[in-house]
Amino acid sequence: VVSMRMSTSTVYVCRIKHGLRVCSCLGNVICLDVLRAASKDMRTVEALLQEINLAKGMHDAFDAYADSVSRRAASVFSDPVGGQAEARAVVVALAVALQGSLLLRRAPTAVAHAFCASRLNGQGPGTEYGLLPPDTDFDTILARALPSSAIGEHQHNTARGRDGA
Fold it and tell me: How does DSSP assign 69-135, residue by residue?
């Protein structure tokens, strides 16, 4: 059993016991910290859910996901001891919902909709990026992510075809 202390030795023990799964052990500790914070003051969870809900009405998949996360969070955080088994999944879902909310409110529409299509598609968070629908606006996404010189090269290659002919 890995101790709950956040120290170099804890991470080292985790690394030895689980290969390179350092994030897994730290993720469990973070989830327990979230449970502890919620048990002290449920307003922390309520504030997070309010922030997530600011994007409600902007995307149907997001709305369904946010509603599901709210229900799950209420269940887990109302019983911190019994909720430990599902805490990690709920904390991950809360993080994904917050990402979606922020993107829907602040990112270009193409970016936000691609996130919702790839992460909130009913197959659970963390699904593959390759699951984007064919009508995804990849040019807008690339324009946001790449320097302008790379975009020009991408458009030039796209116009010529993949093989450069």
Answer: HHHHHHHHHHSTTTTHHHHHHHHHHHHHHHHHHHHHHHS-HHHHHHHHHHHSSSS-TT--GGG--TT
- For 108-155, what is each residue's pLDDT tens digit? 999 999 999 888 876 554 555 567 888 889 999 888 888 776 656 655
Is there a contact between 83 and 100 (Cβ–Cβ < 8 Å)?
Answer: no
> Could you tell me if residue 122 is left (phi over 0), alpha (psi between -120 and 50 degrees) or otherwise beta?
left
Instruction: Report the distance separating Cα 118 and Cα 112, nearest Å.
Output: 10
pTM: 0.71
Tell the burial category of 30 from Cβ atoms under 10 Å away from its Cβ (0-12, 13-18, 19+).
middle
- The first and second tokens of residue 67, run together, are 């509603």
